[in-house]
Design brief:
single chain, about 50% strand, 3 helices, mainly beta
Length: about 260
């Protein structure tokens, strides 16, 4: 049986891999892969993140906030999902499946004298859902729900998708405040071993338009595909982003990110 202090430390620490995946994903960081699939200019795509134990830039710390800024030219369309996860549903871990925009898992290892056998591995499931924008000027909200079945620990965080009016970055995914996490007991370390995450959504809808004028006016129907992520129309070898993490002790970490792209 995992001791109670360590179980509660895990609840907050389960959110660290998500920030680690963003903060570690520099082009130089070993063990980290950030890809858009497909990586073709002008196409709808999904974001795929994979990280292993060689990439530990946060050194086991749980960030208090995180910001991911993406190059101008990307498009984000929350209409790619039919439902939204309300704040109440997020608190109850009951987001509707029709609001899901991503999923994955994180493997973490706890090591120390309080851990049975000296080390124990935990696999947490990750789910991301689109939420209503708060404040209303935002593009949308994002709910991240993480759960680890063997300990029964669960944690959620809610972020904001913000459109930037100027500068090199067009959108920001902001987590202004992660839930406070109780640190592990003295002598216990919790480390990220593996993170796999895929984010993307697509929905086909019927839209109506009125064309013509006067007596020739008529309504036409057509099918339109709404995609959560659409790549920029131009590609010059790679697309860029920036990740910034802040920690409760006042320190911060910033990384410039890049992922290859193709014109066709």
């Amino acid at each position: 049986m995992l001791r109670r202090p360590l179980r509660f430390a895990l609840a907050g620490a389960l959110l660290a891999p998500l920030a680690a995946g963003a903060g570690a994903a520099t082009a130089q960081a070993p063990g980290v892969s950030v890809q858009l699939q497909p990586d073709v200019a002008g196409r709808a795509s999904s974001l795929v993140v994979a990280a292993d134990g060689r990439a530990r830039p946060v050194a086991g710390r749980v960030p208090s906030s995180a910001v991911l800024s993406v190059q101008r030219g990307f498009r984000v369309d929350p209409r790619s999902r039919a439902a939204r996860c309300s704040s109440r549903q997020a608190q109850d871990f009951a987001c509707p499946e029709a609001s899901r925009i991503g999923s994955g898992q994180a493997v973490v290892t706890a090591r120390g004298l309080l851990v049975p056998g000296g080390a124990q591995q935990f696999t947490a499931s990750i789910a991301l859902f689109i939420a209503p924008p708060v404040p209303s000027a935002d593009v949308a909200g994002v709910v991240v729900a993480v759960s680890e079945p063997s300990t029964g620990r669960r944690a959620t965080a809610t972020g904001r998708i913000v459109r930037r009016a100027r500068g090199p970055y067009g959108y920001e995914l902001r987590f202004d405040r992660f839930p406070a996490a109780q640190p592990p007991p003295p002598g216990v370390e919790i480390e990220l071993e593996r993170l796999d995450l895929r984010v993307g959504a697509r929905r086909t809808v019927t839209v109506y338009r009125t064309i013509g004028s006067g007596t020739s006016r008529r309504r036409v129907r057509r099918r339109v595909v709404r995609s959560l992520i659409a790549n920029p129309s131009a590609c010059y070898g790679s697309w860029t982003a920036r990740a910034a993490l802040s920690f409760p002790d006042g320190s911060s970490l910033q990384s410039d990110l890049s992922t290859p792209c193709r014109r066709s």
